[in-house]
Write a structure and sequence with these properties.
19% helix, globular, three-stranded antiparallel sheet, alpha+beta, 7 strands, four-stranded antiparallel sheet
């Protein structure tokens, strides 16, 4: 499920990789740096908007399936996962793409479905484990 253009007035309506939750996500270019805003019910999380293209570049570079490995900020992510990459000092921003301290995690839940919506990646789920690759 996906629709919208990704603006505040017409957000993308996306589903988490498991398909269990529908959420709204839009790009906020009115702030510097631009942000992605993911909203589930009343809860909002923000990530750097550059994450979409940076994640795609990372997946192209890996040229294989990468586990999503989503977890909250308070838990350490499993190495080699998208969640670990989104927090790593070796990514393009040198650390966290999540912008709200205490809610910077769950990157691998909310950002990858945008790439699927754009036709730049695919997600597969096997035995309750999600993974993604560039297409």
């Amino acid at each position: 499920m996906s629709s919208g253009t990704g603006t505040p007035d017409d957000p993308w309506i996306l589903a988490t990789p498991s398909g269990g939750t529908t959420y709204r996500l839009w790009r906020d270019d009115a702030v510097d740096p631009p942000l992605l805003v993911a909203q589930v019910d009343r809860l909002q999380r923000t990530y750097l908007a550059s994450a979409i293209d940076d994640l795609h570049a990372y997946l192209v570079e890996r040229a294989d399936w990468v586990p999503l490995g989503a977890c909250d900020e308070q838990r350490p992510p499993v190495e080699g996962t998208v969640e670990a990459w989104s927090r790593s000092a070796s990514n393009r921003v040198g650390g966290w793409y999540g912008q709200q301290v205490g809610m910077r995690g769950r990157f691998a839940v909310y950002v990858p479905p945008v790439l699927v919506h754009q036709g730049r990646a695919e997600i597969a789920i096997e035995n309750r484990r999600s993974r993604i690759r560039a297409v």
